[in-house]
Amino acid sequence: MNYHVIINQGRVADRTDGALVGARNAGQALAEHLSTKPTIIGQPSPAAQDDWRQALDNANETLRELAEITRSVLDDHQIPLLVTNTCAASIATLPVAAAKHPEAAFLWIDAHGDFNTPDTTASGYLGGMALAGACGLWDTGHGGTVDPRNVILIGARDIDNDERAMLQNAGVSILAPEHATPEAVQELVADRPVWIHVDWDVLEPGYIPAAYKIPSGLLPRHVAAIFAALPTESIRGVELAEFEAGDPNIPERLSIEFIVETFQHLT
């Protein structure tokens, strides 16, 4: 598998300082595992409690660079392996992937739906609007070409009422944690190419630290089994987001080992 590692280091709506550090450290470990030199995008800046509009404006340059490198890697017939700070980075990458592979199944493996819009968000957090923006439910300025009927939401268990209604109306397939088996994923993917997005908060808290912990999640072996069930030749891109470095209760070395071991099932 010809992976090109891309590490995002530009703030994209970060409300904590650990995600940029986590992306850097996990991305470097994955690059070493693959014996390749990563591409670094953006420059770190402090976290802030800003609204989605301000966060989006501040992140536009980073988002454009992420879109450009993703497009370039795909055009070179390589597989982007994006290690990002927040799910909001996918505002830029998913539309590029959908333009290149419109028939692909998009696996959004996340504790949250990330399907809010400016009209429905209660938190004002850009990351909670990322998938909806990529699907064109609101105008991010970075495209909205993903067909929501091609999206499979896996492991989600913290979904707002309005958000759930929009997911259902848009035709997104939803697999709650108890239904997120390799067989169920295989059936929904069928023989399509696959783009994978993982927010590590999909896991049961205690394995890989995330800023927004939600109990009753998947275990690392569940995600690994889903990955192992996918034909490697079907993979078109991988995004790994929201590893919150600096949790004193979970050794960083152990978290990175989980990430690398889980990713190995895609190689």
Automatic annotation (TrEMBL):
Ranges in coiled-coil conformation: none
One Pfam assignment: Arginase
Keywords, comma-separated and alphabetical: Hydrolase, Manganese, Metal-binding
Origin: domain of life: Bacteria
Name this protein carries in UniProt: Arginase
Signal peptide: none
Gene3D superfamilies tied to this protein: Ureohydrolase domain
Organism, as annotated: Paeniglutamicibacter antarcticus
Organism phylogeny: Bacteria, Bacillati, Actinomycetota, Actinomycetes, Micrococcales
SUPFAM superfamilies: Arginase/deacetylase (SSF52768)
Family recorded in the similarity comment: Belongs to the arginase family.
